[in-house]
Amino acid sequence: MPGEKVKNYLVLVVDIDDDIGRKAGLNTPILGREENIKALIKLGLEDPGDSDVNAILGGVKIYDELKASGKDVEIATISGDVDVESEKCALRLKEQIDFLLYLYNPDFIYLVSDGKEDEMILKYLESKNVFVWKKRVVVKQSETLESTYYLIQEFIKKTMEEYIPLILTFTGFSLILYAIFADIGWRIVVGIIGLYILSEGVGVRKLLVEKIKNKEEFEIGRVFPISVTISLFILIIGLTYSISSTHQLTTLNEFIGKFLLHFVDSMVLALLILMVGKFVDNVIHSEQGLLEIFKKYFFYLICIFITRELIITGGNYLLGEIGFITFVMYVIIYISITIILSVILFTKSSDED
């Protein structure tokens, strides 16, 4: 009819995890049919199996069909961020959508994606005065199978990236703890696993990771001064008990040996409390990565128990229960283990420098 307003159509292809940027090195939004075809070719050459290639092809097909029917249509591809649940991803998508709505002022939008995650932007489009059709492009598999496959793939990928370094590090430390401390090593390992499971169950680990990632402030002060006070109290009690248990001994060697054996556990407990306080402060207030913090404090934990074993060995030597050669061998072995561990854990490769 004469004077009737021409309806504007926009074919919007969504790559929410930014495969186009990460794999093909392209910036979005990508505007126009020719530019989108160039983008899908470049992405396809980098990763022929990427489902976003098919999503762009699907968008181009819809564009051609609308163009052939005489519609005033444009096509654009937008992308988010690899962390699809992050604020950064949401803001990138919002900025690009706002720009396209201003540029083309569409009455109708064909939203083209390769899975359910991309359709999260519908929550934003629902607030705009525009009608949206959804079009999911699926390759070969059924829609349900494709979605399930990519959910499983994404879960495995994220699990590998996040947990494999931690699992390998923890496994290595567990074996070392058992090799050095036998049965007590397993008790330490089980205790650490229990603390980790508890933190996962009550959501503490997730909260800490989110706050560290977003650089948010915690409503908690420094824990270390409190742990220093508790440790000093334990040391005083341990010192008093050790002296009262050995004051009747006559020879110097016997006195020192018995004193060390009585005092060592109090000293270790005080050091552990100090370490836990410092560990909590580092997790909350430090900008270091969690894996680096865990590595450092696992090493400190081993050093504390190696020190305990050396003191017990020294006490037994002074009491005449082991010979000098045996004592020296223990010292050499424990010091060697400490040096090797420090080299393995804290020597950075040239790639990291």
Automatic annotation (TrEMBL):
One Pfam family it belongs to: DUF373
Membrane spanning residue stretches: 163-182, 188-208, 220-243, 255-276, 297-318, 324-346
Which keywords belong to this entry? Membrane, Transmembrane, Transmembrane helix
Protein source organism: Methanocaldococcus bathoardescens
- Classification via PANTHER family: DUF373 FAMILY PROTEIN, HYPOTHETICAL MEMBRANE PROTEIN, CONSERVED, DUF373 FAMILY
Protein's UniProt name: DUF373 family protein
InterPro entries according to UniProt: DUF373
